[in-house]
Backbone:
């Protein structure tokens, strides 16, 4: 009977050791996961910050280019309008015809 008790105590001790080993392994795994998650979060934040900074710089650059192109286009269009020949006689004749249904000879 004493042998049975000793055997049971020994088995319980082994079970307790195994339980402690499993708990320690779980703690280590949790620590590794937490560390990996923290590193991944930091890497993501760093890459996101870099990417968003690049996008902001590109936006500013693109806006400047668009503004420049717009000013150039409007300037060219204004020059074209200013240099075009104005035929006021024909215009007046057309207005007279459309508004008063009269024919003016030009």
Residues:
């Amino acid at each position: 009977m004493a042998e049975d008790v000793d055997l049971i105590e020994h088995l319980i001790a082994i079970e307790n050791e195994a339980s402690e080993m499993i708990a320690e392994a779980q703690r280590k795994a949790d620590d590794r996961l937490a560390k990996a998650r923290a590193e991944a979060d930091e890497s993501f934040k760093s890459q996101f910050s870099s990417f968003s900074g690049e996008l902001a710089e590109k936006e500013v650059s693109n806006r400047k280019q668009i503004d420049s192109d717009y000013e150039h286009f409007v300037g060219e269009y204004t020059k074209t309008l200013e240099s075009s020949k104005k035929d006021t006689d024909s215009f007046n004749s057309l207005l007279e015809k459309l508004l008063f249904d009269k024919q003016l000879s030009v």
Remarks:
- The two ends are 136 Å apart (CA to CA).
